[in-house]
TrEMBL record:
Organism of origin: Aurantiacibacter gilvus
SUPFAM superfamilies in alphabetical order: GST C-terminal domain-like (SSF47616), Thioredoxin-like (SSF52833)
EC number: 2.5.1.18
Classification lineage: Bacteria, Pseudomonadati, Pseudomonadota, Alphaproteobacteria, Sphingomonadales
Protein name: Glutathione S-transferase
UniProt cross-references to InterPro entries, sorted A to Z: Glutathione-S-Trfase_C-like, Glutathione-S-Trfase_C_sf, Glutathione_S-Trfase_N, GST_C, GST_superfamily, Thioredoxin-like_sf
The entry's keywords: Transferase
GST N-terminal domain sequence ranges: 2-84
Class of the enzyme per the UniProt entry, highest EC level: transferase
Annotated GO MF terms: glutathione transferase activity
Tagged with keyword Transferase: yes
The GST C-terminal domain, residue ranges: 83-220
Amino acid sequence: MSVELWYWPDIPGRGEFIRLFCEAFEVDYTDMAREQDADALVEHIHGLEGMRPFAPPYIVDGEVVIGQTALILQYLSEKEGQGSGEMEIDLQLLQLQMDIADFVEEVHSVHHPIASELFYADQMEAAFDRAQNFRANRIPKYLIHFDNAIAANGGPFSLGQQPSHVDTSLFQVMEGLDYMFPNYMKTMQGHWPHLEGLQGAVPEIDSLAEYLASERRIEFNEDGIFRHYEELDEQ
Ligand SMILES: N[C@@H](CCC(=O)N[C@@H](CS)C(=O)NCC(=O)O)C(=O)O
């Protein structure tokens, strides 16, 4: 039975972290709102009852209906037999995935520092200040943390030779940062060598290479989380 993924159809956003995992590990999934449209997603989530997900992305897998990107990835990884086989290590992978979720939230707050409901144009001044701090402090702090995690097992993936859900997500983080801050990322080249190695290794996973080259891979754009606004990059 195909796993239903419910996410906004026109942005990579958080949904892309699920798509990348499913594509890399050949999970049978259906990207429901891309088959239908955004209205179908709104109607679907409002039709859910009880302990329902707060926001997309979420999945429906038979009786299982869960949101939160990190939790979905942990669930799918376990179900597909793509965990490490050791609870302690799987929890550490989940921990890293939750760190990634925290980072993604901060990425969004760069262009929406005051309120998600306002347009970027309404909060540009605050975004400018936030971006400066984000580049100077937050990106290095997080990326060095992820780099150290990969280095611990020798790379190229966080578990060493075996790819996991953390690796497809870190790949997306690096691609997103390259899109969002091309100047900054260029000047910082070499500061997180294991992450750069991972960014090269993940697209070599056979099934993922096919997806990345296909039209199904949604390009980064200015409605998503990783947005390129020239004024927010290093000048
Ligand atoms: N912590 C959640 C965040 C989910 C989230 O913020 N989803 C966004 C789209 S990427 C959304 O539609 N949010 C609606 C809202 O916050 O009101 C996760 O990591 O999945």
